[in-house]
Amino acid sequence: MPRFSILILAGEASGDYHAAALVREIKQRCPEIAVKGIGGEKLADAGMELLYHYRDINTVAFGDLEKLRNIVSAYFAMKRELRSGLHQLFIPVDFPDVNIRLCRHAKAAGVPVCYYISPQVWAWRRGRVRKIARRVDRMMTIFPFEKKHYAAAGLDADFVGHTMVRDQAGPRDREAALRDLGLGDFRYTVALLPGSRPAEIRRMLPAMCGAGAIFASEFPDARFVLPLAGEHLARLVTEIASDYGLPLHICSVPAARVMEAADCGLVTSGTATLQAALAGLPHAVVYKIHPFAWWLALRIIKPLLMDKDVHLAIANVLAIDAEDRGGPIKEIKDAGYSIPCQECGRQLFVPEILQNEATPENLAKWLVRFRNDPSLCLAMQRGFSEIRSMLLTSPGSPTAADIVLETLEKRRQLSE
Asked: According to the model, what pLDDT value does residue 138 have?
């Protein structure tokens, strides 16, 4: 293949993770292809030339003029790159508020667009599908149900599988995971995952530690493990946890490894909920935000912009999509359990404990339930196995790298 150049924008840590796996595969197959753009350490390690780090552009606080200047500068730098004629393909990765705008400039410059990691049009602002269809040549989705939303708008979309499924191989080896954590015995182990941002940790960890203290008073043999999302969080986590007297092991290993070692867990809404599902970890999803933001989301944003059946745990989204075919919710029902949504009452697969309900007492009830009811845990683990299967592509289906290289080859043929 001739020397081609790909431009990528991955504006968040999750995008950096997924896109890095894609770039590694592209580079393995065609080392001569150049890759440039915005991302993080993982993309840089995979061989991409960084124009900006994603942390310089993905959040801006009120009055943070330096960050705002970075965002504006990065946006115009990407526009210049798209118009330069130096790149034969643009791969936007999630981050829709910026990437959908840049897709318009790519289209104007005649640069094909293969969008990787679909914006969550299935959850909210479904009207964006038509705009995306006008600006994108190919959509590469990581969840199987996303494809139908784009097909209805006339956009070629392919389910290419989820990177995390490949990275988290099952079934879990609990003994090896415990050794990795320096925990050699088989005491009952609870994973606490309060999130990766300081604000999340301040909101979530006190309730989780409070639940742990209640649970430990009933089960003194229990221990608790918390994986740090970064060493810079160690002091904050230690300060909060010290108020509760928990037998807490704080470690700097990947969250997925902690989930493999644990018997059950409490998980803050986000990427970690899928990690927990793929690890086969019985868990409850926990989420709290500022009371006014919660009121705004529940009373204004959700009725106007969001699907009425949207839920925070991706395992629940997948389970609901598969409900008419059986799936994880049927596993729970057939085992004789009911896990209702606290907002809409519909049957869920994974418990979601939200906002005012996310008290230490309510979280502790789920930990006790997981400890005392192995049949519930087994039903959940069977459902998690089905979730894993849903995120695997069928044999012969194209990978994201296949689609990228196919698009570049078409570009080569047209240029001859």
From this structure: 96
Q: How many domains does the chain have?
A: 2
245, part of any domain: yes
Element (H, E) at 408: helix 400-415
pTM value is 0.87
Would you say how long the chain is, in residues? 416
The residue range of the domain holding 71 is: 5-161+393-415
What pLDDT score does 116 carry? Answer: 97
Taking Cα atoms as reference points, which of 45, 95, 88, 47 lies closest to residue 74?
95
Give residue 1's pLDDT.
47
Q: Under a CB-based contact definition with an 8 Å cutoff, are residues 176 and 192 in contact? A: no
Low-confidence ranges of the chain (pLDDT < 50): 1, 62
Phi, psi angle pair for 352, to nearest 5°: -115, 120
Rounded CA-CA distance 316/123 in Å is 12
| C-alpha distances in Å from residue 315, one per residue of 88, 347, 400 | 36, 13, 23
Examine residue 218 and state whether it is found in any structural domain, yes or no.
yes
Asked whether 343 and 287 are in contact (CB, 8 A), the reply is no
Alpha-carbon distance 102 to 95, whole Å? 11
Nearest to 267 by CA among 181, 156, 380, 382: 380
Comparing CA positions, the residue from 95, 175, 92, 169 lying closest to residue 135 is 92
Burial of 399 (0-12, 13-18, 19+ CB in 10 A): middle
**What DSSP string describes 68-129?**
HHHHHHHHHHHHHHHHTT--SEEEEES-HHHHHHHHHHHHHTT--BEEES---TTTB-TTHH
Query: Could you tell me if 54 and 11 are in contact, meaning their C-beta atoms sit under 8 angstroms apart?
Result: yes
Task: Report which of 289, 286, 284 is spatially closest to residue 262, judged by C-alpha positions.
Answer: 284
Query: How far, in Å, CA of 118 to CA of 141, rounded?
Result: 6
The reply to whether 246 and 273 lie within a common domain is yes
pLDDT at 291: 80
Whether residue 167 is contained in a domain is answered as: no
Maximum C-alpha span of the chain: 74
For the record, the structure tokens of 91 come out as 């791969």
Nearest-angstrom CA–CA distance, 251 and 241: 13
CATH label of the domain that carries residue 68 = 3.40.50.2000
